[in-house]
Amino acid sequence: MEWGWPWGLAGAAAIAAAGCWAVLRPGCQWLGPVVRRTGSGRILLTIDDGPDPRDTPVALDLLDRHGLKAVFFMIGEKVREYPDLAREVARRGHE
Question: Same structural domain for residues 73 and 87?
Fold first, then answer.
């Protein structure tokens, strides 16, 4: 049993290294296919974990300034806490 934790640590390090490789190498497809160009000049922009009274208004203004739309993935608890801000996201045409 005294060799159990070193092997566990080595395994965890190998998994972490593989994960870093998959994330940091642009051509690596371990996490799925890599799409380089769509030809349409479009991207899907997502904004997660809001709404937040500090960051969401800044993001909304920036998107408006550039004529862009985004998908906001909101947390229900934060929507209950900041319902007016969640409505503002929808009012400005974001999903």
Answer: yes
Question: CA 28 to CA 33: how far, in whole Å?
Answer: 8
Q: What is the pLDDT of residues 16-49, one digit of tens each?
A: 887 776 667 767 676 677 666 667 777 788 898 9
Q: Which long-range contacts (CB under 8 A, 24 or more apart) does 61-68 make?
A: 63/92, 63/94, 64/92
* One domain for residues 45 and 81: yes
What is this structure's pTM? 0.58
DSSP the chain: -TTHHHHHHHHHHHHHHHHHHHHH-TT--TTSPPP---SSS----EEEEE--TTTHHHHHHHHHHTT---EEEE-HHHHHH-HHHHHHHHHTT--
